[in-house]
Design a protein that fits this description.
Helix content: 40-55%
Shape: globular
Largest sheet: 5 strands, parallel
CATH superfamily: Flavodoxin domain
Number of helices: 6
Radius of gyration: 16 Å
Distance between the termini: 6 Å
Order of helices and strands: EHEHHEHEHEH
Strand order of the largest sheet: 2-1-3-4-5
CATH class: Alpha Beta
CATH topology: Rossmann fold
Structural class: alpha/beta
CATH architecture: 3-Layer(aba) Sandwich
Strand content: 15-25%
Number of domains: 1
């Protein structure tokens, strides 16, 4: 099984990375981690007057950055983990920029190949008081299901329960290994 983890955090040792690593460790699989803030992903330009562009017509984006390569990695993976820190009860800016473009490109029917039905897990890690994690999971769930992923789990995490959630995520990873 090949697992791809896309993290909306830049800190490879932070809470979001720790939670993600626990799930990846549990799978026992070949895993790749991509930290979105460290790759070149631009925001959607809403190319035409209706707010679309080639994404709607052809299922591809006109922006020349690392986005298309990441979509190819998603297609090549058996399982994709989307993991984000929670900012103001929502996705991080880098995860939002990526998922906004992803849902536009994937809406093109022919381009859903390799994504529709692919197993995905979402992890939303809140610092501070931690109350924004549930709202963030709703936001992430909406975009991933719109893209056609088979979203098998959404895990809200707060810094106050990080250690217990790390154990839950290891178990979730072992469960995922049985699906792949």
């Amino acid at each position: 099984m090949k697992v791809l983890a896309i993290l909306g955090s830049r800190n490879p040792e932070g809470q979001t990375a720790r939670a993600t690593d626990a799930l990846l460790e549990g799978t026992g699989a070949v895993c790749e981690r991509i930290f979105l803030p460290t790759v070149h992903i631009e925001r959607c330009r809403q190319c035409d007057a209706q707010g679309w562009g080639l994404c709607r017509a052809e299922g591809r984006c006109v922006i020349d950055d690392d986005f298309a390569a990441l979509v190819d990695k998603i297609r090549a993976a058996d399982v994709v983990v989307f993991s984000t820190p929670v900012y103001w009860s929502d996705l991080s800016e880098s995860m939002r920029a990526f998922t906004d473009r992803l849902r536009r490109v994937i809406r093109h029917r022919a381009d859903k190949s390799g994504v529709e039905g692919k197993i995905a897990v979402g992890i939303c890690v809140a610092g501070g008081g931690g109350g924004g994690a549930p709202a963030c999971t709703v936001s992430l769930e909406k975009v991933l299901t719109t893209c056609g992923f088979n979203l098998v789990d959404m895990v809200p995490v707060r810094r106050q329960n990080l250690e217990i959630k790390i154990e839950v995520l290891r178990v979730t990873g072992r469960w995922l290994a049985g699906l792949g």
